[in-house]
Amino acid sequence: MKKDIGFVSLDSSLAKWLYEKLRSSAPETVGTEELLEGVEDLMSGKVTALMLELGTEGAILPSKDTIICGELAIYPRLRKVTRTEKEVPLTPKEFDILYFLARNRGEVFTKEQIYQAVWDNTYLLDDSNIMAFIRKLRKKIEPDPDAPKYILTIWGIGYKFNDQL
What we know:
Blueprint: H1 12-25, H2 30-44, E1 67-69, E2 72-75, E3 80-83, E4 86-87, H3 92-103, E5 109-110, H4 111-118, H5 128-141, E6 151-154, E7 158-161
Helix pairs in contact: 1-2, 3-4, 3-5
């Protein structure tokens, strides 16, 4: 298939402006992150040219760190989660807890371990905080929050992300 290819020459000041604009006000998409990395490589001399292609509008493309588990997809670089290809709105802490559990799929964590992994301050002896976050997360990501298939409770210990999906 024949394609018309255009060529645009960037001077260093324009490349710096584009880089700063991407960092400060670009939409959060995989393409933004890739373009940012490309411009950075261009400015550092790692590459001498970039080739751009206009992709599908609004599509989220999985990157190498995307976690896909059944109908659930977690995009860490975008801090975005989808279930059945619909975005699931999560708070920053909900996302951090979900991402921590999912990237350590199958490993069982106590409430204290989850707290220490996600919060910067020292552990408060109130584990109802983690239980409340898990309950809210399940309501958002689970098809049936009363019979969870993603975040599993390990009675007497804590929680784990299902490694059987």
